[in-house]
């Protein structure tokens, strides 16, 4: 792995084309594992915030996450659905739980994941709590909830602790589009799922589209649905299915 100073120099000078996919994945892995010193970590996070249009950085983060996500088994013939809920709803009612409940009613298992609280919006975890769906405390509880009710909410701190730690810096540093995009593209099932991810602007749509195409994952991309993934009754989102 290259020295952090070299990474910073290349990324700051817009010369990340000199970094291989493996280089970027190693850097992202070090950040997720808490192995980057505080000063260098702050600089890296600032770069991620400034370079939010970089698909290379997003793919490196997603590759590193692949080995660090808590994955769940599923034995159904029906493909389960994974929905990342990392922004909450600001302008409209938070309807992502409604989407999940409707899918579960039709026999499709749904795993939602994200933080327990969001800044400036209503979190999915808060709505689900009012509906009697508590956040899972461990992997066994998540598997049991999926089996018994077809629906589970897994906090980001359980699903991907390293990513949750990085996302917590949003309170002080502001939005982290690349980290949020990577979180939304997590596939938490051992044998794969349909990942439902939302994008709020054309740049993010393109970033997700390129990454999904490069990884070959199965995904449903929704455009402009406020913040989280749901069918906005005030604005029908454009949908793209990738497989």
In words, what does this structure look like?
The chain is of the alpha/beta class and 243 residues long. Helix content is 46%, strand content 12%. The chain has two domains: 4-67, Transferase, Pyrimidine Nucleoside Phosphorylase, Chain A, domain 3 (Up-down Bundle), CATH 1.20.970; 81-242, Nucleoside phosphorylase/phosphoribosyltransferase catalytic domain (Pyrimidine Nucleoside Phosphorylase, Chain A, domain 2, 3-Layer(aba) Sandwich), CATH 3.40.1030. The chain is built from twelve helices and six strands. The protein has a six-stranded mixed sheet, with helices on both faces. Helix 1 (4-12) runs parallel beside helix 3 (38-50), helix 2 packs across helix 4 (55-66) and helix 4 (55-66) crosses helix 11 (177-184). The longest helix has 14 residues, at 202-215. The two termini are 33 Å apart.
Low-confidence stretches: none
Note the gap between the termini.
33 Å
Q: On the 0-100 scale, what is the average pLDDT?
A: 88
* Quaternary organisation: single chain
- What is the tally of beta strands? 6
CATH class of the largest domain: Alpha Beta
Q: Main sheet, how many strands, which sense, barrel?
A: 6 strands, mixed
CATH architecture of the largest domain: 3-Layer(aba) Sandwich
Strand content: 5-15%
**Percent helix range:** 40-55%
> Over the alpha carbons, how many angstroms does the gyration radius reach?
17 Å
Number of domains: 2
Shape: globular
Task: Walk across the major sheet and give the strand order.
Answer: 3-2-1-4-5-6
**CATH fold field value of the largest domain:** Pyrimidine Nucleoside Phosphorylase, Chain A, domain 2
Structural class: alpha/beta
Let me know the CATH homologous superfamily of the largest domain: Nucleoside phosphorylase/phosphoribosyltransferase catalytic domain
Order of helices and strands: HHHHEHEHHEHHHHEHEE
